[in-house]
UniProtKB/TrEMBL annotation:
Residues 48-80 form the EGF-like domain. PANTHER family: FIBRILLIN-2-LIKE PROTEIN, LAMININ G-LIKE DOMAIN-CONTAINING PROTEIN. Disulfide bonds join C52-C62, C70-C79. Keywords: Disulfide bond, EGF-like domain, Glycoprotein, Secreted. This is EGF-like domain-containing protein.
């Protein structure tokens, strides 16, 4: 393992391994030995899946690193508040 100039830890940082990659990485991920090394906040085979470290609840879904898209009626960083019944937030 080595630390690459980008700050990532990878099996190899040389351009030689990058030239032999047969896959494309998204969201700033880099390829080494036909595997994507994802930037913080993303995961998956091609770094296409955002990560919400605390998760999204009440039907919300993760649409960006630590960013939830809430279903109707819910709000908050993790979609934890039901604004239809949370009368304190209306004051």
């Amino acid at each position: 393992m080595c630390t690459c100039p980008s700050g990532q830890i990878a099996p190899s940082c040389g351009s030689k391994s990058v030239q032999h990659c047969n896959i494309r990485c998204m969201n700033g991920g880099s390829c080494a030995e036909d595997q994507c090394l994802c930037q913080k906040g993303y995961t998956g085979n091609h770094c296409g899946q955002p990560v919400c470290e605390s998760g999204c609840i009440n039907g919300g879904r993760c649409v960006g690193p630590n960013r939830c898209a809430c279903t109707y009626g819910f709000t908050g960083a993790q979609c934890e508040r039901d604004y239809r019944t949370d009368h304190a937030s209306l004051l």
